[in-house]
Amino acid sequence: MKVTLATKSSKAVNILRKWHLVDAKGKILGRLAPQISKLLQGKHKSTYASYLDSGDNVVVVNAKDIVVTGRKADQKRYTHYSGYPGGLKIYKYAELLKTNPTKIIENAVSGMLPKNKFRSDRLRRLFIYKDNNHSYNEKFGS
């Protein structure tokens, strides 16, 4: 009797994407970003394969209530360079938290994702809202 032990490889056609709702209220940014990154990559699934984008969709609510530890609220800076002379813009964390808190979480998660061809597709499946109002209620049965 011949026994064959073969692992079946995953295919892009068989990927099932679920929806995850993450509440950022009172959560620490450095602890939340890797969890979101893991969901976007699909590393929590038993069918994970590094050569496939098998991650899920993630909706983050209450981005305005994210917390950083220590003195990061005063010292943390975000930079953006346009590529032109004089095109460097520097934003403080506290300033960005008031104007666009979704950018803080997006930047943190983007830094946690691998820098490869799937990065932009994974970030497209990340939906961040600064308060509790979002348009994906039907995905969660609310």
Automatic annotation (TrEMBL):
- GO molecular function terms noted in the UniProt entry: mRNA binding; structural constituent of ribosome
Task: List cellular component terms (GO).
Answer: ribonucleoprotein complex; ribosome
GO biological process per UniProt = negative regulation of translation; translation
Q: Which residues cross the membrane?
A: none
Signal peptide range in chain numbering: none
Q: Which InterPro entries match?
A: Ribosomal_uL13, Ribosomal_uL13_bac-type, Ribosomal_uL13_sf
User: Which keywords has UniProt assigned to this entry?
Assistant: Ribonucleoprotein, Ribosomal protein
Role of this protein: This protein is one of the early assembly proteins of the 50S ribosomal subunit, although it is not seen to bind rRNA by itself. It is important during the early stages of 50S assembly.
PANTHER family annotated for this entry?
LARGE RIBOSOMAL SUBUNIT PROTEIN UL13M (PTHR11545:SF2), RIBOSOMAL PROTEIN L13 (PTHR11545)
UniProt lists the family membership as follows: Belongs to the universal ribosomal protein uL13 family.
How does this polypeptide assemble, per the annotation? Part of the 50S ribosomal subunit.
Protein's name in the database: Large ribosomal subunit protein uL13
Q: Which organism is it from?
A: Candidatus Roizmanbacteria bacterium GW2011_GWC2_35_12
